[in-house]
Specification:
heterodimer, A: 112 residues, mainly beta, 6-stranded mixed beta sheet, 5-stranded antiparallel beta sheet, 0% helix, globular, B: 114 residues, 7-stranded mixed beta sheet, 4-stranded antiparallel beta sheet, 11 strands, 50% strand
Chain lengths: 112, 114
């Protein structure tokens, strides 16, 4: 049972435009969410997080939106840059579980 | 550079064999996590240790085991290897064991079982 789903395996966006990556979850106990970026031959690196008490968190060009009723979060990258081309994973955690459940990732390609 | 080191980078072995993957967490981090990433799959959580004690278990096979040593480095032991165990194995570390903090990932060990 995949509790965290990223239904789009890949996404292509023109440089300068907005990239929107989506993530759905099924476990209503999840209360903390993170996005990680992964380049080839490297480990994932933390990008941005959001707690369930918020519905938006912003860090520079990256904004994460959380819709608890829909069990959906999204990562917006504005403006997209070629260096943003990577695989993006969303992850979710529930208090007291000491672990993150990761989605399968979305490969973003930003075209120059 | 996340500060998390993993050795070896690559490992090629045969079915039925046993291997040990090693991870050194960031300085000051007490928690270590192990993940498996198979082809086109997400990161599957295997196991977590905090200050030498097992804290959480995920989809870890009985053929796999791990431990965290007093100096906080961790080892993941994979035995009776099968072709399907070929994957990238990541180690991550964090300061605390809770789920409200980011994890810092190492570069991974690519295991190929022939």
């Amino acid at each position: 049972d995949q509790q965290v789903k990223q239904n789009s395996p890949s996404l292509s966006v023109q440089e300068g435009r907005i990239s929107i990556l989506n993530c759905d979850y099924t476990n209503s106990m999840f209360d903390y969410f993170l996005w990680y970026k992964k380049y080839p031959a490297e480990g994932p690196t933390f990008l941005i997080s959001i707690s369930s008490i918020k519905d938006k968190n912003e860090d520079g060009r990256f904004t994460v939106f959380l819709n608890k009723s829909a069990k959906h979060l999204s990562l917006h990258i504005v403006p997209s840059q070629p260096g943003d081309s990577a695989v993006y994973f969303c992850a979710a955690s529930a208090q007291g579980t000491y672990k993150y459940i990761f989605g399968t990732g979305t490969r973003l390609k930003v075209l120059a | 550079d996340s500060g998390v080191t993993q050795t070896p980078k690559h490992l090629i072995t045969a079915t039925g064999q046993r291997v040990t993957l090693r991870c050194s967490p960031r300085s000051g981090d007490l928690s270590v996590y192990w993940y498996q990433q198979s082809l086109d799959q997400g990161l599957q959580f295997l196991i977590q240790y905090y200050n030498g004690e097992e804290r959480a278990k995920g989809n870890i096979l009985e053929r796999f085991s791990a431990q965290q040593f007093p100096d906080l480095h961790s080892e993941l032991n994979l035995s009776s290897l099968e072709l399907g165990d070929s994957a990238l194995y990541f180690c991550a570390s964090s300061v605390t064991p809770g789920g409200y903090n980011e994890q810092f990932f190492g570069p991974g060990t690519r295991l190929t079982v022939l």
